[in-house]
Write a structure and sequence with these properties.
- There is one protein chain.
- With 397 residues, the chain is α/β, with parallel strands linked by helices.
- It folds into 2 domains: 241 residues, Alkaline Phosphatase, subunit A, CATH 3.40.720.10; 139 residues, no CATH class.
- The chain is built from 15 helices and 12 strands.
- The strands form 2 sheets. The chain has a 7-stranded mixed beta sheet, sandwiched between helices. Strands 3, 4, 5, 6 and 7 form a 5-stranded antiparallel beta sheet that branches.
- A hairpin with a 2-residue loop joins strand 3 and strand 4.
- Helix 5 packs across helix 10, helix 11 packs parallel to helix 13 and helix 12 runs antiparallel to helix 13.
- It binds zinc ion (ZN).
- The site of zinc ion has 7 residues, from helix 3.
- Zinc ion (ZN) binds next to helix 3.
Length: 397
Amino acid sequence: MKYVVCLGDGMSDWPIPELGNLTPLQAAHTPNMDQLVTLGRGGLAWTVPEGLYPGSDVANMGILGYDPREYYTGRGAIEAAAMGIQLNPNEVVFRCNLVTIQSDIMTSFTSGHISTEQGHEVIGYLNQQLNMDGVRFYAGVGYRHLVVVPDTWLVSATTPPHDLTDQSVVGHWPRGGNEAGMHSLIQRCRAVLANCDINRQRELAGELLVTDIWPWSPGRIPELPSFQSLYQLTGGIRTAVDLLMGLAQLSGLAYPFVSGATGFIGTNYKGKVQAAFDLLRDHDFAFIHIEAPDECGHLGDAKLKCQAIEEFDQYVVGPMLNFAQSRGGVGILVLPDHPTPCAIKTHVREAVPVAIMAPWVTPDAVIRYDEESCARGGLYYETPWALMNEFLGGGRS
Ligand SMILES: [Zn+2]
């Protein structure tokens, strides 16, 4: 048996007036997902435990079979794993955005989408100028970086910077626990950044300045039992996104690199699908993660989201469906990790539509893959690991 998960990040949504009160999944032309659910079964699954923020990290950790209430220690820790960063036992890591804050308003949680090159220079400058014991920064992609600090600076609450766009940051800085350490770090960084060459260049170019760091989602690097020990399967994840690579690293899954993978519309679908086929040659399990629908949801662009869904259907689900039908002995699961409704431009915790086609699955009456049709299907899962346990347990005697 081979098991394939096709995940369209943030793909599910609410009815949108601009689309004639259809959801993007209903409005988009998706012949492959429709055929898949027609040949298989549709249903709903809860992907995020109650009380947890429906982040992609939490949702995908659950979908891989790990209860985030037990294993989730923060987004920074997962991304640190992806970057191969080792932490000492007395250290914690925060995700660290470079941001623009003007008169206490979060003008940009990306410092105007600062380039990776400039981001690396800023992070290098902070490492060089800061001189605070036990503090070190690691540069990531664009505005997304990490900062490692002593665990005595661990705080109990942070706010994701993308939830503060155009809002006051007062009361949202890292807080609770030993917040004083983080506050002194943030203030020192603000002073250092004011003298950074990159900011002079950006000022001349009329671009937003990097005024601050925004540390959030702290934690130690978690220890996950291997995916192989959970399911007696080997495999990998194909993604352009750090945090999925981190989950792969932590769970002992492969995460082949594909050039031209952008995490947005027009990503290198062919390369991603080929990487999944390559995985399936030697392994039992392939997880293909496509980021674009989520990005369109965050932009609030319903038409673009339909396009992202159609590309996912045509370039990812289509080839996998063909593979399953020509080879036999293949189970396919299609789902999003959470809804990212265009109306609110952020994630919500709601059940998501799922479709499973596999030799051991008896078809139900669902013939369209969307929120409403799947709600009438035969599948229902209260947790993502219940879904995965059933999906990955299928077809095995
Ligand atoms: Zn997501």
